[in-house]
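Lecture notes, continued. The same structure-token format from the folding unit now serves as the input rather than the output. Read the line below as a description of shape only.
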């Protein structure tokens, strides 16, 4: 087994009981709240920074996973979901109610930089204002939008006018003198290097980037609200495939399945867990192959060789996933309690095709190293560019290959085990370069680890007794979790921590469904990587993040 942390860091606090945490926070706690995954502490809206600082610095909760917010009949509420990078099974929820008539709460941004975008989204969609926030503006909707779409009094029939304001240089007027020469530059939203409809508001001083601001929201599709309109049992599962729509379908489905199954206390059969694990790692390889292909295209424009080679290997994985699920992208293969059907028949043919792909993979990876990582131009463009120090990555809530490329040893498959991962032999990959090159190396090495996992799953499935191939638990036709039951669960997606927060209201549909997109938090780090660099380095840094705007915007 290779699932133990090689150099586990003790934060000095150890694991504390909920009562010990309450004693540590003292008078800051005004009430307790029960969440299925974590103890919840209710605090006053003017004590957010003090509370989070104590939990971060004295109790070791250094990872703000997500901020979820909602409106009730008598209050607004923000929930800060905290974990530890060293042990994400230790979780705390900080619940912050705000006045119904004046929904103002203190911002967490001075404590956790990642709260910047999360609180802006809560303000944009729900209407909670965060005092002391450095830049409290809408993030998905235009500034001219009237009302907040997730508030109870929102009038969806109200006419809206989305103006097109001129972009102003956020630093100073365009000018040229002996000391500086500033210029405002739009990159995107329609540009081949933005990997979707992303607009980068960029300010140059000469040829150096002095400020870059990602402008998102062009692909917002109300995925959370559509999930809130569907039933747990049947109607939500088709949606996750469409978040990261390009290659992470089963990983997305697993995020919802894990949250809903824990919410409804559903135990998945072991056989189905092995199938899920195999399918998820196939999706991870497909996602990393696409990241590799597009990154090479961004850096040295290599379409004929690298891009097409990687896409060819991705197609091989897609063929296996099509055999398994019947679809190539929108799989809809997971079900609460298991999977929709067993492996394709004849089983031996499926196993043979899978092993053929795995046998071919090492040669392909060696080719990619020859074409890319050994390429002098590629090295010059990526080594020591897009630097993201580990503590900065943590502060922004970066996860997945972006964080592991900065030496952050964090992987939920090992650190918060689910599926069949803790029964298999594989390694968590990290690189210490903290640059664009390291993030690529992590993905390439993770492809090899995924292959190891798939091979072990195939070995298990080949020998599994026929009369024990149980693909689904006995799940009630209608699920109605108890009123005010709350849970946050996450899986290790191809791009990082993909989490789901659900609040139940006693019906067969969620009262609140919040998606924690790894791309959303990872994209926040772009200014840290890009400022002081040149325009080509911004393109390289953006490509190294491997974002999908459908998941960023949701």
């Amino acid at each position: 087994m290779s699932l133990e942390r090689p150099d586990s860091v003790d934060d000095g606090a150890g694991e504390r009981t909920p009562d010990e945490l309450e004693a540590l926070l003292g008078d800051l706690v005004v009430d307790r709240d029960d969440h299925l995954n974590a103890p919840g502490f209710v605090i006053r809206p003017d004590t957010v920074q003090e509370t989070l600082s104590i939990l971060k610095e004295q109790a070791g909760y250094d990872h703000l996973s997500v901020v979820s917010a909602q409106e009730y009949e008598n209050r607004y509420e923000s929930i800060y979901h905290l974990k530890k990078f060293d042990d994400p099974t230790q979780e705390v929820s900080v619940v912050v109610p705000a006045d119904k008539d004046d929904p103002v709460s203190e911002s967490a941004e001075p404590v956790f930089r990642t709260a910047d975008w999360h609180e802006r989204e809560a303000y944009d969609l729900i209407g909670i204002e965060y005092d002391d926030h450095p830049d409290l503006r809408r993030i998905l909707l235009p500034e001219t939008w009237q009302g907040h779409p997730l508030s109870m009094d929102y009038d969806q029939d109200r006419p809206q006018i989305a103006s097109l304001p001129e972009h102003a240089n956020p630093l100073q007027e365009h000018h040229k003198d002996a000391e500086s020469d500033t210029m405002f530059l739009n990159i995107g939203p329609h540009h081949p290097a933005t990997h979707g409809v992303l607009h980068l508001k960029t300010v140059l001083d000469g040829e150096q980037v002095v400020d870059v601001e990602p402008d998102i929201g062009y692909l917002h599709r109300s995925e959370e609200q559509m999930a809130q309109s569907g039933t747990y049992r049947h109607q939500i599962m088709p949606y996750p495939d469409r978040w990261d729509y390009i290659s992470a379908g089963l990983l997305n489905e697993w995020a919802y399945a894990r949250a809903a199954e824990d919410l409804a206390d559903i135990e998945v059969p072991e056989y189905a867990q092995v199938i899920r694990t195999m399918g998820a790692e196939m999706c991870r390889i497909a996602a990393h192959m696409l990241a590799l292909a597009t990154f090479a295209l961004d850096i040295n424009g290599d379409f004929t060789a690298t891009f097409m080679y990687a896409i060819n290997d991705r197609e091989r994985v897609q063929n296996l996933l099509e055999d398994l699920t019947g679809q190539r992208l929108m799989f809809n293969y997971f079900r609460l309690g298991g999977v929709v059907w067993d492996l394709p028949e004849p089983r031996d043919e499926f196993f043979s095709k899978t092993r053929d792909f795995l046998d071919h993979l090492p040669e392909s990876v060696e080719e990619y190293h020859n074409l890319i990582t050994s390429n002098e131009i590629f090295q010059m463009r990526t080594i020591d560019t897009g630097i993201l120090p580990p503590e900065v990555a943590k502060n922004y809530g970066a996860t997945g290959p972006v964080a592991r490329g900065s030496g952050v040893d964090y992987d939920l498959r090992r650190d918060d085990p689910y599926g069949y991962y803790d029964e298999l032999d594989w390694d968590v990959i990290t690189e210490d370069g903290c640059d664009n090159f390291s993030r690529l190396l992590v993905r390439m090495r993770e492809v090899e680890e995924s292959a190891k996992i798939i091979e072990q799953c195939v070995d298990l499935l080949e020998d599994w007794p026929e009369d024990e191939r149980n693909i689904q638990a006995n799940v009630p036709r209608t699920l109605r979790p108890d009123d005010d039951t709350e849970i946050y669960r996450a899986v290790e997606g191809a791009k990082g921590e993909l989490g789901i927060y659900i609040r139940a209201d006693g019906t067969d549909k969620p009262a609140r469904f919040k998606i924690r997109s790894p791309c959303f938090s990872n994209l926040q780090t772009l200014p840290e990587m890009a400022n002081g660099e040149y325009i080509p380095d911004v393109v390289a840094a953006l490509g190294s993040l491997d974002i999908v705007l459908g998941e960023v915007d949701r």
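Point for the exam: The two ends are 37 Å apart (CA to CA).
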